[in-house]
Amino acid sequence: MAGHKVSALDIPRNAAVVVLTGAGVSAESGIATFRDSGGLWEQHRVEDVATHEGFVKNPELVWRFYSLRRKDALRVHPNPAHYAIAALEEYLADKGSFTLITQNVDGLHSRAGNKNVLEIHGSLFKTKCDNPRCPASETPFDDETTDYDALPKCEKCGGLLRPDIVWFGEQLDRVTEAKAMHAVGECEIFLTIGTSGVVWPVAGYSRLAYELGARTITANLEPPANVQNYREVYLGKAGEVVPMLLANVLND
Ligand code: OAD
Fold first, then answer.
1. Ligand 1 pocket member 3 (CB < 6 A)
2. Hey, whose CA ends up nearest to atom 15 of ligand 1?
3. Which fold would CATH assign to domain 1-31+78-121+172-252?
4. Is the pLDDT of residue 119 over 90?
5. How far is the CA of 19 from the centre of ligand 1 (A)?
6. pLDDT in tens, 72-115
7. Where are the domains of the chain?
8. How far is 221 from 219, CA to CA, in rounded Å?
9. How far is the CA of 72 from the centre of ligand 1 (A)?
10. What's the number of CA atoms in the CB half-sphere (13 Å) around residue 183?
């Protein structure tokens, strides 16, 4: 598949826009993706570091894995794709609406200036109690600690603390998911950037937007697995393609 020729999108100032991002948007910042060659899932077993069973079995290993990823995320900077998406939010601020749904846990969108960000798979920089009966399990707190000498414990119940990441086999946070679905249901333009389109339920959002008649657009290095959901497909590196697609916004 060749993809469409990249040129500036015409986005009205009063448009309702949803942007959905995945690991590919952060690749040029120096953050490893998951499924590309050399990606995180080639180097680690998903069951060991991204499931609750793995955490129960070896919490030290899981904390070491996420501590390293925190360090990596803090070491790098947003790239031109992140900044172009932040400019889009600003452009729509007066008359339109904008929601950014990100599967990324690296915090780079907020650092680039985006405000309405739904971190649908959680955040590297949030921690919560692992004990489902503890009230603190519902209230993640900010935590940028990159090294723990010992496993961190909950102040309220003494249970283990865990990264606030949605692991495989876990439900999305209900409120975050409801906000995301609402925005997808209302949007006129649905733009996906840098995601393979294989992880559900988020991979289905583009289908919903498509069926509701939105202008669905993807910008990705290669055609995503759910490419049939997109009316427009732009292939290339996010750091190059996204600023070109959003040139009218950036030049405004
Ligand atoms: P993947 O690693 O599955 O996919 C990254 C996508 O980005 C691929 O389609 C690449 O072709 C594309 N890509 C790579 N470099 C790019 C670049 N410079 N510009 C544009 N595109 C590029 O990552 P996600 O789709 O984000 O979940 O993965 C979804 C979820 O699966 C993640 O949130 C994570 C993972 O397991 C959890 O950890 C819960």
1. no
2. 24
3. Rossmann fold (3.40.50)
4. yes
5. 15
6. 999 999 999 999 999 999 999 999 999 999 999 999 999 999 99
7. 1-31+78-121+172-252, 33-75+126-165
8. 7
9. 16
10. 28
